[in-house]
Amino acid sequence: MRARSFNVVLTFDGSGVSSHANHTAIHKAVSRLAFTGQVPNDCRLLSLVTVGLLRKYISFLELPFSWLLPSSLRCIVGPQGYRRAKDAMFCHRSQLLWFRYLYIIFSRYMFVNTFQMIPQGPTNLKMY
Predict the structure, then answer these.
(1) Using CA atoms, how far apart are residues 81 and 87, in angstroms rounded to an integer?
(2) Which end of the chain is more exposed for a tag (fewer CB within 10 A), N or C?
(3) pLDDT at 82
(4) What are the residue ranges of helices labelled H in the chain?
(5) Res 49: pLDDT
C-alpha cells in the first residue's frame, strides 16, 4: 500500500460473500494489517458487505435496501458497468458453470455493492 501510494483498499468481508477460502483469507490479512497499524494514515480500508441469500439473489430489486441501510460506501452499477462485469465473467468460460449464469442474472453484486469501513487499530500502543 505504501509502495503504490494507495489511499483506498476494497476487500471482502469476513464472510467472503460465498465463504470462499481465498476471500476470507484476504479479509483476515487486510484486517490484521489494519489492527497492527501497518496501513498508511491516509489509506482507508473498506470491506464488501455480505448479505443473506434472499437479498443476494433479488437482483436490482435489492437497490432500495442497499440505499436505506447504513454503509460507508455504495457502488451502483449502471447498464454499461453491468455489461463489463458480464463480459468479464464470460472471459472465464471454464469456470462459467450453470449456477454462474444465474448469478449473472440475479445476483445483487452485479448491480449494487455496499462496503463498511475496516477499523484501524491504535498505532502507538504501549504494552507493559
Answers:
(1) 10
(2) C
(3) 95
(4) 16-19, 21-35, 53-56, 63-68, 79-90, 98-106
(5) 93
Which contiguous run of DSSP H or E holds residue 8?
strand 8-11
Q: Which three cell numbers stand for residue 28?
A: 483476515
In the chain (128 residues long), the average pLDDT of successive 10-residue segments reads: 88 86 92 90 92 92 91 94 94 88 94 93 62
Q: Which grid coordinates are listed for 7?
A: 489511499
Closest alpha carbon to 120 in 13, 37, 8, 14? 37
* Domain positions in the chain: 8-117
- The set of residues, in sequence order, having a beta carbon less than 8 Å from that of 65 and lying 6+ positions away, is 55
Query: What does the block give as the cell for 15?
Result: 464472510
What 8-state DSSP symbol labels residue 77?
-
